Amino acid sequence: MLEESVDLSLSTRTVGDRTVVEVGGEIDVYTAPKLREQLVELVNEGNHHLVVDMERVDFLDSTGLGVLVGGLKRVRAQEGSLRLVCNQERILKIFRITGLTKVFPIHESVEEAIAATD
């Protein structure tokens, strides 16, 4: 019996006062809770300026979008920010269709997101 492997890679690093969360793989109903836990933990630890690097994300569904919106609400409650790095057309299209390009600052690169001021 073959098991479908659910791949989501997460790693974090700090650059100045920003915490960069590098996400790779698929953000869907199965993997989104892992991302949610990571974001909650970071905010609870006092990291209120997050950059979510989605350059290596292959797939994003509505559950993943919900986690990102939840993360945004969480950091905003702490007067923080959540910026996205995404340069893949198929993922950007999801943000455009849902109107979330008006909600999230979306950048071409991590460097651009870090340099941006709130």
TrEMBL record:
CDD domains noted in UniProt: STAS_anti-anti-sigma_factors
Pfam entry (one): STAS
Record's keyword annotation contains Phosphoprotein: yes
GO MF entries: anti-sigma factor antagonist activity
Keywords: Phosphoprotein
STAS domain sequence ranges: 8-117
Record carries keyword Phosphoprotein: yes
InterPro entries per record: Anti-sigma_ant (IPR003658), STAS_dom (IPR002645), STAS_dom_sf (IPR036513)
Family matches, as NCBIfam families: ant_ant_sig
Family of the protein in this entry: Belongs to the anti-sigma-factor antagonist family.
Record function comment: Positive regulator of sigma-B activity. Non-phosphorylated RsbV binds to RsbW, preventing its association with sigma-B. When phosphorylated, releases RsbW, which is then free to complex with and inactivate sigma-B.
Name of the protein in question: Anti-sigma factor antagonist
